[in-house]
Design brief:
mainly alpha; 63% helix; 642 residues; two-stranded antiparallel sheet; 4 strands
Length: 642
């Protein structure tokens, strides 16, 4: 084998080496200065015009704002910063927050879910269903407004300005994420697929097949400006998407917060940063719990592709970020913080051993691993923990044996896994508070939140079954008799359909990712459309996520799907606009036409979801990695052995 490699290296002529160097120089060439300045001016003009358009739209649409959602977030923000217990109406109307400091605010923020459960009624007639960071944003906003305006006791439209700028910042972050994502896949589709080790080759310790790892010197390379133009076009379609502007600045809701976190997580996963992708998705879910609708795609897709370590990295990042970000609501006292700090110290000593153990004898490991024993077991020694002791023993075994499994460049992952296991021990064995989970996440997914199969303007499969076939949310559909007798109602059936579509999309995403096909983006975005089309208890606003992302990322692979995404965006605007106009008692003549089309538009949405599902499974066009062999006589083929 070494002799064969020497022959392959000797077979490369000097002309082939010179051509390879020239291609490398062309790859890193400096773009033209005038074109660069024109591109910067174009991007700046797009951003400024989008901001001006949003300011004008907000003021123009003042008569049709959906004020219950605005008043709801104001009331719950006031409830957070005020020390309300029973006389919450009198306390909310008390001017100013002169007694508010940062420690007091954090204490009241940590106690907000317990206090909300003790209320005889709720502000604005709603029960609190905000996740942790969203209620924190509401509290900070009201704290800031009441500090500036001492008598800001009742909601006013002008108080919405900070949240409108926050929505604009989120939309701008989504534009940046879409630009990076589309540019990455436009460049990536011109590269040959990486070599994959087959199972039989892995067992027999063979190298990958040479026919699969052949490097073609005439591979197609995209121009310098093509990926940039595609990225700018995709970001512009999102920036000026009517559905995005209507949701964030006309309805004034916060559904747009879901998109930037999912897009940035998808970009990080595309460049193999799965741990950071898990962190981003966890933070997004704390702002909008609906972020978790398609969070499992980042687990299913790597598993179907055989990248089990990548899926594990994502799960660890998700658990660590969720635990740390929810710590003030989850941890019951200082003992939890001490235990987490002790486990991190033990993990850092294990990391030090991972780095230096190649230069030291094995028996020196006692000096590194000895602190892990008291740090992992002290809650059971002083009877602070009340859970099963086997969890502490599992964590201790990991702290002692885990460092032997890692190389120095992966030492950080050992600390991350240790922190995730410490979070699990804290949640199960130590005293912990769970009202934030029941209120902010589980309540929104329960039947008590809405007992209808679909809301009247949410045009999906649920509305068709509800209006045309008179099915109910908990109505029995059929009974399973194997392996146990179980009654399947309509809610469970629709949820099962959604899970199946996500599994199919994850399999398609793994297939496209393995081939460097940009239809991978379609497979990762389609679940957002199928969730709205097939899931029960959907709101009309939820079509925003799939339609806006589809209209943007489809620039990388299919113009027809861009048009389909824009069509879904228009349908979503019509659904939400119908609710806004009806609430504000506006009755234009065309509103009757929209209402008469329901549930007819639901058939169009379901058909669009099926089209996206079919296009996700298609292979698409074949990328011609081999150009016509006009230079075949000049450049010999080069092979390498991994």
């Amino acid at each position: 084998m070494p002799h064969q490699q020497d022959q392959n290296h000797l077979s490369i002529s000097p002309s082939a080496t010179q051509m390879a160097l020239s291609r490398r120089r062309r790859k890193f060439r400096v773009p033209n200065l005038s074109w660069s300045l024109a591109a910067i001016g174009l991007v700046t003009a797009i951003i400024i015009s989008g901001v001006i358009l949003r300011i004008w739209i907000f003021h123009w649409s003042t008569p049709i704002h959906y004020t219950p959602d605005m008043r709801n977030i104001w009331d719950w923000g006031s409830f957070t910063v005020k020390n309300t217990k029973h006389n919450w109406i009198r306390t909310l109307n008390r001017p100013g927050v002169t007694d508010m400091t940062l420690p007091v605010f954090l204490h009241r923020l940590a106690d907000v879910y317990r206090r909300s459960r003790a209320l005889p009624g709720s502000p604005a007639g709603y029960q609190l269903d905000y996740p942790t960071w969203r209620i924190a944003v509401a509290g900070i906003w009201v704290w800031m407004e009441r500090s500036l305006h001492a008598y800001a006791t009742v909601w006013r439209p002008r108080y919405m300005i900070p949240l409108l700028w926050l929505n604009t910042a989120m939309e701008l972050c989504g534009c940046i994420g879409i630009f990076l994502l589309v540019r990455h896949w436009v460049v990536r589709q011109t590269r040959p697929p990486p070599a994959r080790r087959k199972i039989r080759n892995f067992i027999l310790h063979r190298s990958p097949d040479l026919a699969d790892t052949e490097i073609q010197p005439g591979a197609v390379r995209s121009g310098f400006w093509k990926p940039w133009m595609a990225g700018v076009l995709a970001a512009s379609l999102f920036w000026f998407n009517p559905n995005v502007i209507q949701s964030a600045h006309t309805w004034v809701q916060y559904d747009v917060w879901v998109i930037p976190f999912y897009i940035v997580g998808l970009y990080l996963a595309s460049v193999d940063l799965f741990f950071l992708a898990g962190v981003v998705i966890a933070v997004g879910s704390l702002l909008k719990g609906q972020e978790l609708f398609c969070a499992a795609m980042f687990i299913f897709w790597p598993i179907f592709e055989g990248l089990f370590l990548r899926a594990w990295e994502y799960i660890v990042g998700l658990v660590v970020a969720a635990g740390l970000c929810n710590s003030i609501w989850l941890f019951a006292g200082p003992a939890d913080w001490y235990y987490l700090a002790g486990v991190l110290i033990a993990g850092l000593t294990g990391t030090a051993w991972i780095i230096v153990h190649h230069h030291m004898r094995w028996f020196y490991a006692i000096l590194f691993f000895l602190p892990a024993i008291p740090l992992a077991l002290w809650p059971w020694w002083n009877h602070t923990a009340h859970g099963p002791s086997w969890m502490a023993l599992v964590l201790l075994a990991w702290l002692l044996a885990g460092p032997w499994l890692f190389r120095p460049r992966r030492a950080w992952f050992f600390v991350a896994i240790s922190a995730a296991m410490a979070m699990a021990v804290l949640a199960i064995s130590m005293p912990a508070h769970w009202l934030w989970l029941k209120t902010g996440f589980l309540f929104g997914a329960s039947v008590r939140h809405t007992n209808m199969l679909s809301l009247p303007n949410a045009d999906g499969l649920g509305l068709i079954l509800q209006d045309n076939f008179h099915w109910g949310l908990t109505e029995k559909v059929f009974t399973l008799r194997w392996p146990v007798v179980y009654t399947v109602n309509m809610r469970l059936l629709l949820v099962a359909i959604v899970v199946c579509t996500e599994l199919v999309c994850a399999w398609a995403a793994a297939r496209h990712h393995r081939r460097n096909n940009p239809r991978f983006l379609l497979a990762m975005v389609t679940p957002w459309i199928t969730v709205f089309a097939f899931a029960p208890c959907m709101f009309e606003r939820y079509l925003l996520w799939g339609s806006a992302m589809l209209a943007s990322v489809a620039v990388a692979f299919d113009a027809g799907l861009v048009l389909l995404g824009l069509l879904l965006s228009v349908l979503s605007v019509l659904m939400t606009l119908t609710v806004q106009l009806g609430f504000n008692h506006f009755r234009p003549h065309w509103l009757a036409l929209i209402r008469s089309a329901e549930p007819g538009m639901a058939y169009a949405v379901v058909l669009a979801a099926l089209i996206c599902l079919y296009c996700s499974l298609r292979s698409g066009r074949n990328i011609p990695y081999d150009e016509p062999a006009k230079h075949a006589s000049e450049v010999p083929s080069c092979r390498y052995i991994s």
